[in-house]
Amino acid sequence: MASGGMSGADPEVLAAIDRGNAVAFLDIGLGDGSNVAELGRIKLELFVRDVSGSFMDICSSQKLIANLRHFSSVRKLVKTFDSSAPPTGYKDTIFHRVIKDFMIQGGDFMNNDGTGKLSIYGPSFPDENFKHKHDKAGILSMANSGPNTNGCQFFITCAKADWLDGKHVVFGQVLDANSMLTVRKCEAVPVNGTTPRIPLRILQCGEL
């Protein structure tokens, strides 16, 4: 298990692990190039098996290409990646969609604009279950374009969004108050429509 830069034992992380759940992290920054302001870390407790597996492997970019190569449906696509610059998963991707009092959406490591879709299971994979609900802020859920079209994109709710229940697979939640504060900072960035005016970027990610 990677430390993800975490110093000392985090009791919230340990409690999640004791519950049998993995914990991912996203370090968030605002800006581009050398002009980036760090906003903080979002820790995410993951609790739906197949969806969490794809999400975590994309977070842990060293596993991404190895897992993709197992699936013939995406093998040709994998070969199109520049071998000198293989995909780094969610690292350096952006949150391309921010809607105050609703959600922040990211995860498109293909195109960075909400059009890309790919998972470790193939171009898309089925809805796993709808057991968990969009019943509060801080819910981690899969973005999709209809039933059974899960890929790499995800969103984090900024408020209750129960109209999404039964349509989007909830697979985790923001772990602690400091992480939720970082989500609120993301929610507050200036936007043109729903697109952040300044890139809202995942600087680093992985497993805790």
Describe the structure.
- The protein is an alpha+beta fold and 208 residues long.
- 21% of the residues lie in helices and 27% in strands.
- The protein contains five helices and ten strands.
- The chain has helices at 11-18, 49-59, 64-68, 72-79, 177-187; strands spanning 22-32, 35-46, 95-99, 103-106, 139-142, 154-157, 170-174, 191-192, 195-196, 200-207.
- The strands form two sheets. The chain has an eight-stranded antiparallel β-sheet with strand order 3-4-6-5-7-2-1-10. Strands 8-9 form a two-stranded antiparallel ribbon.
- The chain is globular.
- The N and C termini lie close together (7 Å).
- Mean pLDDT is 85; it is low at 1-7 and 72-76.
Query: Which whole number gives the mean pLDDT?
Result: 85
Helical amount among residues, as a percent range? 10-25%
**How many DSSP E strands?**
10
Largest sheet: 8 strands, antiparallel
Number of helices: 5
Biggest sheet strand line-up:
3-4-6-5-7-2-1-10
Order of helices and strands: HEEHHHEEEEEHEEE
The percent range for strand residues is 25-35%
Radius of gyration: 16 Å
Q: Give the overall shape, derived from the CA principal axes.
A: globular
In terms of structural class, how would the helical and strand content be classed?
alpha+beta
Q: For the terminal residues, how far apart are their CA atoms? A: 7 Å
Unreliable runs: 1-7, 72-76
How do the strands and helices of this protein lay out in sequence?
Layout: H1 11-18, E1 22-32, E2 35-46, H2 49-59, H3 64-68, H4 72-79, E3 95-99, E4 103-106, E5 139-142, E6 154-157, E7 170-174, H5 177-187, E8 191-192, E9 195-196, E10 200-207
Antiparallel strand pairs: 1-2, 1-10, 2-7, 3-4, 4-6, 5-6, 5-7, 8-9
